[in-house]
Fold 6-phosphogluconate dehydrogenase.
Amino acid sequence: MKVTVLGLGSMGSALAGALLAAGHETTVWNRSAGKDEALVARGAARAATAAAAVAASPLVIACLSDYDAVHGVLEPLADDLRGRTFVNLTSGTPEQARESASWAAGHGAAYLDGAIMSTPPGIGNPAVMLLYSGSSQAFAEHRDTLASLGDPVGLGDDAGVASLYDTALLGMMWSTLAGWLQGVALTGADKVDATAFTPVAIRWMSAVNGFMSTYAPRIDAGVYPGDDATLDVHLGAIEHLVHASAARGLDTGLPELLKASIERAVAAGHGADGYARLIESVRAGGRA
């Protein structure tokens, strides 16, 4: 498959390298010179201009700094994109993705917006997810090629969904890491090494995964039974976390934040409900 990669930062270079490793005829372009040398040495074709890069392949992948940069490069080349598939792996918002999809459709190009759930060293590993949304026909046509970059996960025809998932999943990552850091600090204050605590924490996460799988259909149905643990029980337990953190001189901001969300729901009369009830507070902007 002939593929073009626009943008050769750390991620763009990793994408192009994975395509070359999979045997695809890969054309590369970068605004500033010199970043393509290693790729050209591996067999990539160097395009002197963005126009030449787009013209070289039916599948054009962009991985630039932001959506403004993407449009700055491609808007003058809109007619050259006609009949091609444009895959935008640039980070942005769902709204930007939908606007880009409309722009591409208006110029006769199929559009996929993507989210890379990895750092550059993971590109090419089939265990790594890349999320795509936009033209289902384009996704089906190019799925095998996109699989060179990692496991391609199609999320449907709404071009904004991949970015939406990306934002939500990064939020989960930061929240999880924040909870882990709180745990490392708490146990570390009593001379437990992070390397000793972390394997136990990872094992515990498998139980947390089970909670999410149980709570998801309940959230969709709007029912929140407290059959595993009620919010009253959670409130009592989280007070231990606040106390233990404060007693060791740690930042109690995160435990206090979690405690406050539970307290609001309990004060609103939902103490007998399960933890999934807190989705209603999140949806209501923090009101129980």
Summary: The CA atoms of residues 63 and 254 lie 35 Å apart.
